[in-house]
Amino acid sequence: MTGEMARDGGLAVVLCGHGTRHADGAAGFRAVAGRVRERLPGLIVRYGFLELAEPLLSDALAALVAEGIRRIVVIPCMLFAAGHAKTDIPGLLRAFEAAHPGTEIRYGRVLGVDPGLLAAAADRIEQALTAAGPGVPREETLLLVIGRGSSDPDANADLAKIMRLLWEGLGFGWGEPGYFDVTFPHLEVAIDHAARLGYRRIVVFPYLLFTGVLVRRLRQSLEAAAVRYPDRDFVEAGYLDDHPGVIDVFTARVEQALTGDTAMNCQMCRHRTDILAFTRPAGDDPHGHDHDHDHDHDHHDHDHDHDHDHDHDGRDPADATGHDHAKEEADRDHHPHGHGPGHPFADHPNGPRSARRWPEPE
Q1: What is the residue extent of each domain of the chain?
Q2: How many CA atoms lie within 13 A of 321 on its CB side?
Q3: What CA–CA distance (Å, rounded) separates 295 from 275?
Q4: Domain 11-112+244-299: which topology?
Q5: In the chain, which ranges are E strands?
Q6: Cα 84–58–287 angle (5° rounding)?
Q7: What is the pLDDT of residues 301-330, one digit of tens each?
């Protein structure tokens, strides 16, 4: 997946989303793909999902080959480089190339920490503050940025970096990161911690591309927090969605892939080097993990750094988080992917149950 690619009718671009069973979330991704297509009228632009929605990425690629397209650029439409972007998609693309001789696939970069996304995030936050109304100075407001969470510490660090850039860039009194799953601090723990710091207003921004189960969980958590902390003003900011800045970054990733600028920053990748307690998964070759992420899928763990649209609405009376953990774990046992080694601090009291080391499916 190297070399220059000419921009002509023999080339197609496929945007790869994670996939969701949430109809609005899938529709949001399709809408973004349509807007990217409008920005690139000289290219064939399609989309596919890694799982949970149709068309699957493999089906989208097969359809292009059936049409005679042999040069394809695949853009991972994910905010951070973690398990899916580093292992699952490259493995699928490598297998597809092997099964379709003569097909050349270029793999692009994830969205990552990008000025365009920061501007879009800042706009969503400012919109929420405008809707909330005046009365609370910016310096008396705390910004809480919530990401999906990953067992890849590099991705978690990127979320924390984005939080810091937004906190300092927008002039809030304080800033904190939090995560929906896999790592810590978990969503509810992060909200409680923020509320106890004494700031009058707490702006909670879900750093997500589209709506889905996670947005619903966030709203439920904020409603519960408002009851526990009636003297705090909780403000929910909107997720990124189809903000023009998001479309700009998607379009830039396509253009970069066409010119060969596809290298990801792998300096802190857990598949390349040991990062404190995060040791490389067994069998990993640090020299074989190249910047194109064109490597053997079987040598890497599958990080559950995302929401698989399990039913998170069931409430265990003894569980303040609102998760039906028994169902979560049952769903994971039947998930088609293999499970990785989990988080090294899986028993951290501020982490979610999803940080635990899951057994391999039988």
Answers
A1: 11-112+244-299
A2: 19
A3: 20
A4: Rossmann fold (3.40.50)
A5: 11-17, 44-49, 71-76, 104-107, 141-147, 174-179, 201-206, 233-236
A6: 40
A7: 333 444 444 433 333 333 434 444 334 433
